[in-house]
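Side project, low priority. Logging it here so it doesn't get lost.
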Amino acid sequence: MKQLAVAGNGVARQYLHHLIFLSFFVGAVSGTATGQGVYDAESAPCRFTPAASADGSSPGLILGAEVLLLEGSRPDYGVHIRFNGGLGAVGEFDSVRSAIPDAAVLDCRGAAVLSPGFVNAHEHPAYSYAFPDANLNSGYTHRDEWRLGTNGMLQLPIPERLIYQPGDRRSAAILLAMELRHLLGGATTIAGPGGLPGVVRNIERQRGPGDIELYDYEADVEVFPFSFQVAEDLREECAGGPVHRFTRESYDELAFMAYVAHVGEGRKASCAARLEVARYLRHVQRRDRRYALVHGVAADREDYAVMREFDVTLVWSPRSNLALYGETVDIADGLNSGVRVALSTDWSPSGSFNMREEIRCARRVAGGALSSYTLWQMSTVNGAYALGLEDRLGVIKPGLRADLVLVEHGGGSPHDAVLSASHREVLGAWVDGRAILLSESLPESLGAGQCVALDGMAPRVCGALPAFGLTPATFAGYVEGSVPVNNVSRQASCDVTR
């Protein structure tokens, strides 16, 4: 059963979905694994009705709420989560309920908003458990300066790279804390190397047998598309010398999938960063695959025009940009030029600890110029588009995957409710149809296994800890000293210096 709980895809995952939805037949389960609280249908914001089918089928679950669709929010809508983790019918609640009368129902209409989970299009999960270094500052001109200590600048340490190995409870706990932190912050998908199978959805290139379980979908995520010391390689060219020819450019080795590369990670005053952008934008004109440009701090209005013409998504991490370089992209210029923008957190040593914190930073940088709907798009469908996965996730639509977040909504903008929800307002988070987070106000039978309470967060975690041989106590011991699940007080600053 443990193997089934952590499987990334395939038959084991489908069987797990079937087992989960069978649990809807037994109705609400009282209490939690830690003995905290009892589900009280009278006081809960949602009304739960178990599945009525008794013929061995799995009719799935209907969620009723105000539903965020691309065309706008829809009060009194129903969304059907099928037994295999896909989305079924989406429409007026009563119509969906009538069409699938045997399904379990969680009716949160008038009390909650349902959104696709955020798609974090750029992270470094293997390193994103570490706090910012005490010497982090915004005085760097190009990323090679803080990485390598060039130009007399102080080199910043790179955290230990954590790779999950079955049976290694320490790495599993730390990586689980990282993924739960992102899930609690609204992200059901993270793009970047590393992570754990069976919790959030991980996106990267499969390079070994274990990666088949870890990475649900693939994209070419590249940190160094030109070289490991690009500023040094381009020094002569920047001084008026001959054009430098890189011995290897990673996009010559791509498969047919999305390419998501760090480019122009440095100030506009950095010649190396500017040349990176120019080279990359010449390459994208091949139009041979989906392209995204991560960071792009050095890009200007002319570059934005090329990005718009050749459908290049800008993956924007304003907090990390500001913390390292003291500036970020001119987001108003980019949007006015028609560039598609996706938000991302980068990593914990210089970026936001979760997507809601990145959204908060983006609002501050933009000075009110970004609407809640635009920020929601940047955090959902645009991230999926950057990864070439807009036909699989990032929106609520029949046939796509059931990656969903449900938050309380007491009035006002439904998009703001999702963008700024505190952990106490998170009712649930589903990944591939499995409820990994569940509020104590909801029955445990909805969860992807045993639900346990963790210190510092209101919703319970379902199914994840036992899959890695962890208890709340052992989990807490292993993660001491790493970025906590729900405390952002030590993340990098989002100070706007220009």
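Brief comment: Residues 202 and 216 are 6 Å apart (CA to CA).
Revisit when time allows.
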